[in-house]
Amino acid sequence: MAKALAADVSTWPAENPQLIGSRCDACTAVTWPTQARCPRCSGADMTERLLPRRGTLVAWTTQGFVPKLPYAGQQTAEDFEPFGIGLVQLGDEVRVEARLTEADPEKLRTGMDVELAFVPFYVDDDGTEVVTVAFAPA
Predict the structure, then answer these.
(1) What is the DSSP letter of 46?
(2) Three-state DSSP state, 4
(3) Which 3 state secondary structure label does DSSP give 132?
(4) How far is CA 72 from CA 80, 124, 125, in A?
(5) Exposed end of the chain (fewer CB within 10 Å): N or C?
(6) Is residue 42 packed enough to be buried (19+ CB in 10 Å), middle (13-18) or exposed (0-12)?
(7) What is the distance between the alpha carbons of residues 83 and 80, in angstroms, rounded to a whole number?
(8) DSSP one-letter string for 61-103
């Protein structure tokens, strides 16, 4: 059994999960995750919107060292495995920052197609695997 790190940001564990964003009814700005007010015009008329599963990698980097606390993932240098982080353009609507399933710089390139995935993040105290949002090369 697994659970999502943040259950309200996606439709996971649906068969083809999507990120849950919001769209401003006044200015059409799209956000992820959802927001109560628009970051562009400050409007309060936000509508929930399911975002595309596929996108384009706009920029990326590799996290090559253990992040500072409070980091819920791998905690020690002995357990740590580098991971990719990317900025992904979803359609013409919104850019999201998320983990990548690939960390090898030789396998990542700006402009490549990526698809939403969910990856193991850590195992909590009761033994449940916690998964997080990621994007995989398509």
Answers:
(1) E
(2) strand
(3) strand
(4) 12, 9, 11
(5) N
(6) exposed
(7) 9
(8) EEE-SPPPSS--S--STTT---EEEEEEEETTTEEEEEEES--
pLDDT tens for residues 91-122? 999 999 999 999 999 999 999 999 999 999 98
Amino acid present at 78: E
Residue 132 CB-density burial (10 A; 0-12 exposed, 13-18 middle, 19+ buried)? buried
Which of 63, 60, 111, 107 minimizes the C-alpha distance to 83?
63
Residue type at 102? E
**β-pair type (94-100, 20-24):** unpaired
The tokens for 60 are 């990326």
In three-state secondary structure terms, 117 is strand
